[in-house]
Amino acid sequence: SSHFPYSQSYRGQFNYIRNSVKVVVDAYEGTVDYYVVDENDPVLQVYRNIFPELFKSMDEVPGGLESHFRYPQDLFEVQIETFARYHMTRPNTFYNQEDLWTRPIEQYGGRQVLMEPYYVLARLPDAEELEFMLISPLTPENRDNMIAWVAAKSDPGNYGDLVVYRLPKERLIYGPAQIEARIDQDPEISRQIALWDQRGSRVIRGNLMVIPIENSFLYVEPLFLLADNVEIPQLHRVIVAMGDYISMQSSINDAIFDIFEREAGVARPLAAIPTVTGDEIPLPGVGTTQVQDLSAQQLSEIRSMWRELLTALEEGNWTRYGQLLTELDDKINNQ
């Protein structure tokens, strides 16, 4: 709606947006059910008074269906773009617009575009279990370093919960554009891309993903190769960056293990995460963490677990996939 009272307009298009109802269509008989996920929506309350028999409560959702609900990407984009301005709580800072944030820029298909939020199965820094969520990094306006990231949870029981992690301003944390620049500056990767991107084929850089892992971030970008006589691009390489390392391999597991192996034998301290006061929410963990030496046997065990995880993914065995991902995460972080 564009007529909700006392609400600011979004890009001159509307000033009110909610995702209060999940509409489910039975694929066999075409029956349509409307399940209410936000009982407090005032507009929905009006519709419920008009059509009292139309809407159903979440208690009536069939077993197993609720786990398939996803937090909507378009709503999330509106929320994070609004939050990028209204996160400022100090009047003077807000009045002078001194701390504006924005969605980051990434390279996609040979051009620079706004980075889209993406769904991941990950474990938040202060959580014990993996969660399915929609996430997006944020950068300061006119700067490329990452200043925060936002997650919208989709799992039953936590659906719709929004979590913001503010990153310390005094610590440089690479944003998507900076990772893209580091990829461009890598001589071997640049040479390979130039070689593939010749007459008869074209290299397409896919969406960059920033995935939080403990006190660090994993950056993943796929490379696709499109031949002139083929309409569908083929996944050709995967680029993974973490810390000071960048690796381009034929698969994501090869790239991740290449980084692990290059880190093995090097006790590389992660930068300390300082305690931040006021409205700043730091990532958990204070002090210095050492990446311990990994023996050949430990690397072999991790490789074996990773292959099992990929097998579960290919088979669509999500229960086993989640268990293995948790075990692999514990294995890596407890070495």
Characterize this entry briefly:
This protein is α+β, with helices and mostly antiparallel strands and 335 residues long. It has helices at 42-50, 73-86, 91-95, 176-185, 187-196, 252-263, 296-315, 318-333; strands at 21-25, 32-36, 55-56, 101-102, 105-108, 111-114, 118-122, 131-140, 148-153, 162-166, 201-205, 209-213, 216-227, 234-242, 245-249.
Structural commentary:
- The protein has 335 residues and is an alpha+beta fold.
- The protein has helices at residues 42-50, 73-86, 91-95, 176-185, 187-196, 252-263, 296-315, 318-333; strands at 21-25, 32-36, 55-56, 101-102, 105-108, 111-114, 118-122, 131-140, 148-153, 162-166, 201-205, 209-213, 216-227, 234-242, 245-249.
- It has 2 domains: 1-69, no CATH class; 73-86 and 103-293, no CATH class.
- The strands form 4 sheets. Strands 4, 7, 8, 9 and 10 form a 5-stranded antiparallel β-sheet that branches. Strands 11, 12, 13, 14 and 15 form a 5-stranded antiparallel β-sheet that branches.
- The chain is globular, with a radius of gyration of 22 Å.
